[in-house]
Amino acid sequence: PELRSGSRAQVLFSQYTLADAEARGKDQASALLRLRRTSCMPLERRRQAMRLLLRDWHPDKHQGKPLEEQEHANEVFCYIQGLRSAVLG
Questions:
Q1: I want to staple 29 with a disulfide (CB 3.0 to 4.6 A). Which of 8, 21, 39, 45 is the partner?
Q2: Beta carbons of 77 and 58 less than 8 angstroms apart
Q3: Mind listing the pLDDT tens digit for each residue in 26-76?
Q4: Nearest-CA neighbor of 46 among 30, 58, 35, 60?
């Protein structure tokens, strides 16, 4: 497997990042943990994992749902987007 080093990848594994994700909610923490599992995978696999998470939480996918669910989906989507550079390098 391809190993990644450097500060970007280390962001995924810092205690602060996990604490922040947990403070935001269980869905953000779950997304972070899923992305952590991809950290040693080849770039294409990391891209695929990122793409799937973003697709699942995309705001357009949650249209027509209650406003609270739409806002939550948008928050999780934005959180995942914020991790993009750490995951993809």
A1: 21
A2: yes
A3: 999 999 999 999 988 999 999 999 999 999 999 999 999 999 999 999 999
A4: 35
